[in-house]
TrEMBL record:
Protein name as it appears in the record: Uncharacterized protein
Lineage top rank: taxon: Eukaryota
PANTHER family, A to Z: PHD-TYPE DOMAIN-CONTAINING PROTEIN, PTHR47331:SF2
């Protein structure tokens, strides 16, 4: 059977999902953004409509009913009565633009003045991450009734890297970050060509370079890394993880997640490695 994609409509009884699909993934949490981006790439978002739960055939199963009730259910076999009418006669989808805030922990530095010397004290990214992660755990334990102890979790290590990246970006790109927070452009910045934006964690990312590409959000919008000691540590760690990669291979691996400024020259200066 040949189906014309223009005749396909998509339905959800979740107003939240409909709202997400109408938004730019840039404004969503990474987990949701990746999935919304995939849906937007393979469907026409203008053809997503809201259906009330009482008109949703899938919903009657979740409410529970007998085999006989299911067998005799017109909604299950044929859908809501209005579905057979012309699209002009379908109920109007009237979803307010809403985005609930998922449970997330915001991490803030207690000091009003950032201590950038921390980057010069360590030559190993993993050690630096652990030091910061244990510090953040201590702060959290003091602020709340939590009493976490033992080995660090992967989530704690990720949070520590986020804090370090924000600190490094603030040190080098503080003016750009303030401009973006105030809805101002960065036309006089060397980052202008990257169309930078701040994600939900306040991290600078590359903007519209690959916005229509069918890839994960983090690959579409890699984190911008300044010419900085933290960037050197990240590159060094990636190099150790993918030995014996050459310059181009290493650069490709790094750019799946990060966008270091002047990356190729930085890599060549840091390592004596062959060209691919």
């Amino acid at each position: 059977m040949d189906l014309n994609s223009s005749d396909i409509w998509y339905w959800s009884d979740s107003t939240i999902v409909i709202s997400w699909l109408q938004m730019s993934p840039n404004n969503l949490k990474t987990f949701v953004a990746n999935r919304v981006s995939n849906i937007q790439n393979i469907t026409d978002v203008q053809r997503w409509r809201h259906v009330l739960s009482k008109d949703n055939p899938a919903d009657i199963i979740s409410r529970g009913l007998s085999v006989n009730e299911l067998k005799n259910s017109r909604l299950w076999w044929s859908g809501p009565t209005w579905l057979s009418l012309s699209t002009e006669q379908w109920p109007v989808s009237n979803c307010e633009h809403e985005l609930p805030v998922p449970e997330a922990k915001s991490v803030n530095f207690l000091s009003t003045k950032a201590d950038y010397t921390i980057f010069e004290r360590y030559s190993n990214l993993r050690r630096l991450q652990r030091i910061v992660a244990y510090s953040l755990r201590f702060i959290d334990n003091c602020r709340t009734k939590n009493n976490r102890h033992g080995d660090l979790t992967l989530e704690e290590l990720k949070s520590s890297l986020v804090c370090l990246i924000k600190l490094a970006q603030r040190q080098i790109f503080g003016k750009e970050i303030n401009s973006l927070k105030n809805k101002q452009d960065v036309r006089n910045s060397k980052l202008k060509s990257l169309d930078p934006f701040l994600d939900e964690n306040g991290i600078l990312r590359v903007g519209g370079r690959l916005k229509n590409a069918n890839i994960d959000f983090s690959q579409k919008h890699p984190i911008i890394l300044p010419q900085h000691q933290l960037t050197n540590l990240i590159i060094k760690q990636k190099h150790l993880e993918c030995l014996p990669a050459g310059v181009q291979t290493l650069l490709g691996i790094i750019r799946q997640e990060f966008w270091p400024i002047n990356a190729k020259n930085t890599i060549k200066k840091m390592f004596v490695i062959h060209s691919d």
